[in-house]
Fold this sequence. Notes:
This protein is α/β, with parallel strands linked by helices. It has helices at 16-28, 40-50, 68-75, 111-117, 128-138, 181-193, 213-221, 235-242, 270-277, 290-293, 306-317, 320-334, 339-349; strands at residues 2-6, 32-36, 58-60, 80-84, 96-101, 122-125, 143-144, 161-167, 200-206, 227-231, 247-250, 281-285, 301-303.
Amino acid sequence: MKIGVFDPYLDDNGGGEKYMMTIAKCLSEKYEVDIFWNNEVDLLNIEKRFSLDLSKVKLTENIFRYPFVKKQIASMKYDAIVILSDGSIPILSSRKIYLHMQQPMLHSVSGKDKLKLRKITNIFVNSKFTQNFIEDNYKVQCNLLYPPVSIFGNYAKKENIIFHVGRFRILNVKSEDYKKQQVMIDTFKNLVNGGLKSWRFLLAVSLPNLDDPAFVKMKNSAKNYPIEFLINSSKDELWEKGSKAKIYWHATGFGEDLQKNPQLAEHFGISTVEAMGAGAVPVVIDAGGQREIVSDGVNGFLWKNLDELGEKTLKLINNPDLLKSLSRKAFERSKDFDEESFSKKVFEIIK
């Protein structure tokens, strides 16, 4: 079987590339797989960044840049084409078409789109949160394929660290503080002002412009507090520092109307699972994909407001036995999202 894979954001330096390229890697174990892309350097960067072996896939010219007729002719030679969609429905001549949608879509579906959907073999999504919006909007049924997460094991000696990972800004998201990092900084400062001692808050932040005025302002707000920043760190450095954390925080979606703007919530929460895989106990917002990962009081805590974030964090800090128990359960839960589980599900969907 000959399969084509297309991710229009392969050079975006986000998280979706690992998802799509891991699909390509899995499929290449059984089938002939082409990746539609014109820049080999982008693929090499992804291999290095995510430690992915893509040696069995082939880079071929991006047929999605072709005029309509030429694209149809080029796509005819494929048994299946797997596409990361921005919500649009492609017209192709391959025998099967699989669409991945990785965020909720609320735009209206035209009559033309409804006709094009008849040619789509399957739509698959990265979380139940995304699934609910896609199925309701497009009036289709979707398969659930959680992202692949690298689980390395809890081997680091733990320190009194609360950890967070997230990009500072995303250009296509209209929010000054998309990941709510300022919210978490202010919450941690309140804990320190209330008497918390001997704990640090470590934020691993990626951003294209170190001189971004909004980031400089946020960083300055943390002065004179035990708050540290890892900026544009490598995966190895993130792991070396983050694996020492006892607690993981995530707040994306806080204060937003997620029925009107579901894209402002975390669609899944890969960094949460990675932290759990290192034995950190998640204390994360009860919204988006986070509630699919964490069961409150079982393998971490969910919170709805900032008082709960502070209270549940202090509950862990003041109860070492509870922290250790939830740490073990968090690690066990993380294994449900490992790459082996992902690969097995890929072949159930794409066949």
